[in-house]
Amino acid sequence: HFNFHISNYIIMANRRTLKKQIRAILGQLMDECIICNLVLPKFDNNTLDSFAGRIIEINDEFIARANHPEGTKDPKRVKLYYNTLIQDFNKATLALIEDMNKISE
């Protein structure tokens, strides 16, 4: 029985750092999926493929959003945009972790 959690928190200093943090967190989740596939009978290849697809979708969505902020002329709008992006990313990864925890019970 595994209990997944992510200990990294996103602290954005700049766009490049944000994208690195997104990739690092999702990389950790992918590593956990691979380990689960190796040690948990419930976590078969189809389950691994499903989670890998979700991780790739989350990565693509949030990297694209990080690359194209709204309101680039107004620093307050940009800051709000990135704060919303980080909150949305956290929600997406937490939902993924909850699903992984359900399977590993």
Account of the 3D structure:
This protein is mainly alpha-helical. It is built from three helices and no strands. The protein has helices at residues 15-39, 45-67, 75-104. The longest helix is centred in the C-terminal third of the chain and has 30 residues, at 75-104.
Task: Give a quick precis of the structure.
The chain is mainly α and 105 residues long.
Task: Fill in the keyword field for this structure.
105 residues, mainly alpha, 3 helices, 0% strand, elongated
Q: Helices and strands in order, then pairings?
A:
Blueprint: H1 15-39, H2 45-67, H3 75-104
Instruction: State the share of residues found in helices, binned by percent.
Output: over 70%
Shape: elongated
Order of helices and strands: HHH
- Uncertain regions spanning at least 5 consecutive residues: none
Using the CA coordinates, give the radius of gyration.
Answer: 15 Å
Largest sheet: none
Class computed from helices, strands and strand pairing:
mainly alpha
Overall pLDDT: 87
How many strands appear in the DSSP assignment? 0
Distance between the termini: 5 Å
Fraction of residues in β-strands: under 5%
- Helix run count: 3
